[in-house]
Amino acid sequence: MVSVLPATARADTNQTMIYEVYAGGIHAVQAKLDIHFTNDKRYDLVLGANTRGFLAKLAPWSGTFESHGWVVSADDFRPQLHKSTANWRDEIELKEYKYKKDRTFDGLWVTDHDKPTYKKKIDDALTQGTTDALTAALLAMQEVGGGGDCEQSSEVFDGSRRFEMKFNHENAEDLKASKYNIYEGPSVKCTVEVVPVAGKWHEKPRGWMSIQEQGRERGTMPTVWMGRLSKDGPAVPVKIMVKTAYGNLFMHLAEYRSGDEILIAEKRVLD
Fold first, then answer.
1. Whole-angstrom Cα distance, residue 94 to residue 117?
2. Distance (Å, rounded) from C-alpha 51 to C-alpha 55?
3. Is the residue at 1 inside a domain?
4. Where are the alpha helices (DSSP H) in the chain?
């Protein structure tokens, strides 16, 4: 394994990315990702997204997903708290996943709109030894940032099911910047696959599993290109492509900020 200790062990670093998502050529979603490493060996990831334009009128959704945890070593990131907040037509659902530093799962608290918060009863077989999806992705990003490939596998608990989240290395690829995407340079191309491990899974794929299988049927699993924009931080997603039954979905890196560095694409959609 090729990796480097995050610069967070030496200095406070932060990267902020804005992504524009296009489905069938229509601007459908905007997302913002913050990756922050602190000098006391902590990490914070915050991903926010919301539907835009015509889609926002049909499906008014927004969500925020956060992971906060410990940098134990160059290839060992452990969550302390993962939080997801979903807003659908002004009804908010909040889930808080808590972990101990020894990887013990410490509980899931759920707040469903205006109902009282409760701790969900969960079988240990679904939770113990798992991580969250953002931290799993960060491990792959760190590996690429250290000069390696993205071959990574983590087991994740999503609130009701346990699955293996696999990053499969495809190849290295040089990317050119465009009016939609600011990134130009070497990248690592990876596919992402979710493999059920435990819990109740629908016989007919739904949600992400449905999207994943649509891509598989069309010969291409969901694909992410990772590139390094910071000499101190991990690589970041610079492009994503998902093939579905309704057409291709592309996510482009439209804005990047780190310290004094600011890069903005010509077609960055402003609020």
1. 9
2. 6
3. no
4. 53-58, 124-127, 133-145, 207-217
| Angle formed at CA 186 by CA 182 and CA 189, multiple of 5 degrees | 95
Asked if residue 2 is part of any domain, the answer here is no
Nearest to 49 by CA among 19, 24, 22: 19
Coil, strand or helix at 97: strand
CA 214 – CA 64 distance, rounded (Å): 26
Q: Pull the structure tokens for residue 196.
A: 């059920």
Residue 118 in domain: yes
Model confidence over 214-263: pLDDT tens digits? 888 898 899 999 999 998 889 999 999 999 888 899 999 999 999 999 99
Cβ neighbors of 52 (< 8 A, separation 6 or more) are 27, 28, 29, 30, 269
Among all chains, which residue has been given the structure tokens 């070593």? 73
Q: Which domain holds residue 65?
A: 7-264
- What is the total residue count of the chain? 271
Closest by CA to 200, choosing from 189, 209, 212, is 209
Q: Which helix (H) or strand (E) holds 60?
A: none
pLDDT digits 0-9 by tens, 134-156 = 999 999 999 999 999 999 999 99
Radius of gyration of the chain, Cα coordinates, nearest whole angstrom = 18
Coil, strand, or helix at residue 217?
helix
Nearest to 17, CA basis, from 267, 264, 244, 208: 264
Domain assignment of residue 270, yes or no: no
Supply 76's token pair. 């060992």
Six-digit token string for 111: 């707040």
Is the separation of the CB atoms in 155 and 197 below 8 Å?
yes
Number of domains in the chain: 1
Type of residue at 86: A
Structure tokens at 31: 């997302």
Encoded amino acid at 263, one letter: L
CA 133, 137, 205, 48 dihedral sign is positive
